[in-house]
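User: Structure tokens for both sequences below?

Assistant:
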Amino acid sequence: MKNGFLLVGLFLVLPVSCQNKNNTYNSDFKLVAKNFKEGFKKLNLSPNQLSYVANLQAIQSKDSILQQELFFERTTKILQKINPEKLSKKNRLDFELIDYETKMNLLRIAQEKKWSSLKVQDISDTGLFSLPNGKFLYGYFLKRWIGLEVTPDEMYKFGLSEIERVKSRMKTVQTRVNMDNSTFKKHINASSFYYDNIAIIQEEFENIKKIVAQKLPENFPFLDSISDVKIARGTNKELAKVPAFYQNETFYYNFFDQPFNKRQMSWIYIHEAMPGHHYQIMLENSLNRTDIQKMFQYASYREGWAAYIEEIGYEIGAYRDIYDELGKWEWDIIRSVRVSIDVGINYYGWSDQKALEFWQQHIKEQDNIGLREIARMKRWPCQVITYKYGADKILKWKTKFQKKEDFNLKQFHQIILENGSLPFSVLEKIID
């Protein structure tokens, strides 16, 4: 082929044309992207799974790993010969994604080669730290879930800083109502803060939906592409560990045998429905994305966006009073504590008892939730960090943009959303 990048087996070959003819960069790069997609598909790689045991069990044979390594090493060499500055906006984004996935997969391959050399017969499900080379494995899984740039030590410190931030916000709410600790605790646990009637709960969520909808057009783009979100009571008790969830264009709230906390209604609706998961997922599905962009999904982006939305609840009209805000912080302290515990268990080797003591230091009288979350983090390392890390990234970008005189929240959201799910390191390049 005179112009373009050839695929030989699973290998990519750079043509002379792309080295010396600027006007052929974009047409040639489309062939690079096409061949990468086809070569990647032939590798038949397993997607990242929640369970670390499942991920380790999915490691392929030694010959397959070698084939993968050759493919990604060759891809690296090709990318080094391309000047992304000469690519169109869309092609440059594909370039960044291919580059990111190539680096991530080479990191995965290094981990898998080390793991395979250990010849472990039975994979323990008691946490990554219990495995041979467990700390190395955790460092890899953290990057796979969060991003290439993160480290366990940094994430642990990030968790500590978020714990203090959220505690400060909760204290501010208490100060505003002018109550001491015991009076405030008694006040927020009064029956007046709980619903026990399904019809009233449904009506209240429908009301929140209407209130939030009024402010959406001035703050969020692409609303014409978004279908209406339905609201329904969840019926699956296996999913009752969380107050609500999103599935199939429907916001489900869980109401079984426990009263429903009013303070969790506003934040959970905007997180799961509009303008959280429902909005972001429906919008992404409507975008004219390239084949490369459609190949990958990034949990830290999706969960980060939904958690970020909770942070701007007042700006978008979702929080009607300080108790709606308090409900957000009451759940966010759990998310914050989980960040440090996840690192503590899986990287520093904390026992369950030490993890629970850390939990009790920051969260009182919720040991049942703490034990549940500890077990979750041992099975699914790193996943719980996606919410906090993603929200923090978007909030910092928002703060940076707000320094501009012409800051517009809707335009800022368009920049974050218009390319769909991306690694934050790639999105940061677009923003910069």
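Moving on to the next sequence.
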Amino acid sequence: METNLPKFESVFTIDCVIFAFDAGKLKILLIERNEEPFKDWLALPGNFVNTDEGIDQAAERILYELTGLKGIYMEQLHIFGDVGRHPQGRVITVAYYAMIRLSGQKEPKPVSSFAKKAFWHATDMLPKLAFDHTKIFEKSLQKIKNKIFYSPIAFELLPEKFSLTQLQQLYEVILNKKLDKRNFRKKMLNYGILKELDEKQQGVSYRAAKLYKFDRRKYNKLFQKELSFGG
């Protein structure tokens, strides 16, 4: 239906919170901005949505332009629209988040001059980020802290083959607390969703541990049961 009403101008941005687990540390993908405002600051990969693209399409484009990464499934996290969150005016951002397995991923590298560089940074040593990106990060971290109790998201961060020690380390890092080793292992093995492999860790200086894989088929059969992960 055609009307003579004026068109609205919308100003939206996308910010991407991408988590990974490496060397016993939970990490997040950051960029060093190359443009004002906040030039030279560290920030989440983010930019403006073009007027001719959808939100999901923009998220994929922005992540690729600022980090070189693509093909990553991201979910919408939250909408941030506080007045004053952007120094140039009222800008609403749609935040997306994802958890990825680092093995097999190429090193992040911007394909746009908007960012000087992209890199992984440990979440326990984050500096103050540009805009309200620290707030966005904290919201996303709380999201996965809550989700890890009822969803097998940990296996999205671990290598395909992992030890029970690696699995426990990941839970402890996300939950920021120590877990009893015996109880944790007993609970995880009792779920029946871990497949024990006839393999052990390679190239380690300590006693090599058994390796396991996440059995997604078994999990899918059991998903109607209430599984309390990490409790």
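User: Anything stand out in the second?

Assistant: The first strand starts at residue 12 and ends at 22.
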